[in-house]
Amino acid sequence: MPFTPFHFGPGLLIKSLTGRMFWLTSFVAANVLIDVEVLYYLWTRSRPFHRYAHSYLGGMVAGLLAGAGTFAVAMLAARVWPRRWSIPPKAKSSKPMLLFQSIAAGLIGGLTHIFLDSLVHAEVEPFWPFAAGNEFAGLVSGRIVYLSLAILGLLGGCIWLQEYLAADR
Ligand SMILES: [Zn+2]
To answer: Which of residues 92 and 105 earns the better pLDDT score?
Structure first.
């Protein structure tokens, strides 16, 4: 969907509850990557706007790419700017563990994206290429989906801010 930031709501909430274990950047990257497809087809004005990336298979691939890509960038940054990117608590974890965390966050981002978009957009075919159609569309009204996502994001933001302020003291 073009309203990509709404997808960040659940990610913010998970981040606020799990802390450094959860790679919010990988989660966000997966969501952005999937919606590049919509942007492209909007730009070329060719319907449907939601195609291959908007399936569970596409979402998983995007999640893997986003997770691996974010991990690679983080490792590179830590090597190029060791002082600035010391990432203290994360650095204690082993590299395979960090890669696993990053990919897990990417996959959660990709899969939640497909699920949420399949509720709102009838043209999404979540089980492509195995099955056509979308039985989830319209199960919940679009407004309720957007509102819930906004509330989740706000809640996550509040918890995060509160923890940040508490830790700062
Ligand atoms: Zn989308």
So the answer is: 105
